[in-house]
Write a structure and sequence with these properties.
14 helices; alpha/beta; seven-stranded parallel β-sheet; 350 residues; DNA polymerase, domain 1; 2 domains; TIM Barrel; elongated
Length: 350
């Protein structure tokens, strides 16, 4: 039996991370994360006593599979379930783009359970820190996207207070604290039909960074879509143009064709206004496609390689975007999340 000394909470969180990265069923992930949350505040002695008494499954959120993981970890043994997951899911998603991945200092697009993500803000922040990020931008959705529980101005204001609290906790000696990590305040703001942004100017002013994306009427006529996207790019608050074609090439949601627009005109506007084109790292998006990525490169655009993570394990999608950027010949300094935080925030300020 292989020894394991990281403890049961770490074992459960690692299992959830690997399952999320592989886009496995959500219910499995929630089972392991729920069990980790249950035993986290318990003392080691109390957890060990529950193992010895066979009462782990009496605890809320701890099922039979989670109990086996906890019991093995408490005994100092590598849990079988974790060993299998490491063997099946633990390999790097790609070995290409490694130099670019090493150059990334953070990730500008991620979601929490305040909108359509699956985990609390603090869990997303801790995972980003553990992945070696200097910063992570939280970009939950804006109010028009009701299906994703988009944030009204009032809810967004409350979220900013939570982000402050998370940063204060890390700065004051929380787990793995300091290291200079900062959770930055952001939004994935919907681009409305006329090119305006789906949030108040007052709230957009309070944010560190804004990703602007089209989520509705993706089949809009090409000329109208071009006007819509250029209108958003020209907005002074827009920093990143998110998943520009809206396509889906694989995955549980099925496939979806890309929006039609004058890419040369849109990327010319991005270059003129200093708006970064997002290289979305989600396997089902791979957006923009290779031909448009080349057009954006040749137009002189900046880029942002983002995970668009909706769960902590998905923060590790970044190598997939790095591989595509490397293949397209995009230099590291044109990728804004290779920049130090101070330079990034200066660029992102309206």
């Amino acid at each position: 039996m292989t020894t394991y000394d990281a403890g049961p909470v770490a074992a459960l969180r690692r299992l959830a991370f690997l399952l999320e990265r592989a886009r496995e069923d959500t219910y499995k992930v929630k089972a392991f994360r729920g069990a980790a949350a249950t035993i986290l505040p318990m003392s080691d002695d109390d957890v060990a006593r529950a193992v010895a008494d066979g009462t782990l499954t009496d605890l809320p959120g701890v099922g039979a599979s989670s109990a086996k993981v906890i019991a093995s970890a408490v005994r100092g043994e590598l849990p079988d379930r974790l060993a299998r997951a490491e063997e099946e899911l633990g390999a790097p998603l790609t070995t290409e783009g490694a130099d670019l991945r090493a150059a990334l200092r953070g990730d500008l697009h991620s979601h929490s359970d305040w909108s359509d993500g699956g985990s609390p803000i603090e869990e997303m922040a801790m995972t980003a820190l553990q992945l070696g990020h200097d910063y992570q931008v939280l970009t939950d959705h804006s109010p028009r996207l009701k299906v994703a529980r988009g944030l009204s101005a009032e809810r967004l204001a409350r979220q900013l207070d939570v982000i402050d609290a998370v940063n204060d906790h890390l700065a004051s000696g929380g787990p793995a604290a300091s290291g200079g990590f900062t959770l930055l305040k952001g939004i994935e703001v919907d681009i409305l039909d006329d090119g305006s942004l789906d949030q108040t100017e007052e709230m957009l002013d309070r944010l560190d960074l804004r990703v602007a994306s089209v989520h509705s009427k993706l089949a809009m006529e090409s000329e109208a879509m071009t006007r819509r996207m250029i209108g958003a790019v020209r907005q002074p608050h827009t920093n990143v143009l998110g998943h520009c074609t809206g396509r889906l090439v694989t995955g549980g949601r099925g496939t979806r064709g890309q929006s039609s627009f004058d890419a040369r005109a849109v990327f010319k506007a991005c270059a003129e206004h200093g708006v970064a084109v997002e290289i979305n790292s989600r396997p089902e998006r791979q957006d923009p496609p290779d031909d448009l990525l080349g057009l954006a490169r040749d137009a002189g655009c900046l880029f942002s390689i983002d995970s668009d993570a909706h769960a902590p394990g998905q923060l590790d999608f970044l190598p997939l975007g790095c591989a595509r950027a490397e293949a397209a010949g995009i230099e590291a300094d044109r990728i804004v999340n290779t920049w130090p935080q101070e330079r990034l925030l200066e660029w992102a300020a309206p």
